[in-house]
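HUMAN: Now follow token order:
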Amino acid sequence: MDPASIIGTTSAAITFVETVVKMVSVARNVHNAMGELDEHKRLRDVTSALEPGIATLIGKRKSQTLLSPEEESLLQVAEQCQDISKQIFHLLDSQTGPISQVGHKSSLSAKRNPTRLSTLKTVKVTLRIL
């Protein structure tokens, strides 16, 4: 084998191992989850934290305030982030229910919910987000 092939094979093996470790980690979280996964909660929190800043920029545009080229560029990026955050919320809501239901003290937090979604669906949603 030439050195390039060895490096490529080693890289593929490392990537495979990292993927398997990530999948096992997600499966453990799903097994132990009593509602929403920690990673999903973090994603929901991050996307929620971006909303006020995006709303401020959009408000400036609507008020006809002249935006600098940097602010205009930032607004375009912010709007793209907002679209992505909506997709993330949609994926998370399809898995755990609407945000209004997440975090409430319910049977999910009191005990394991026997009707929770299947592990396969949860892993699929997590991998789609990643």
User: Anything to note?
Assistant: The helical segments are 3-32, 38-62, 69-96, 107-110, 119-129. The CA atoms of residues 88 and 120 lie 18 Å apart. Confidence is low (pLDDT under 50) at residues 100-116.
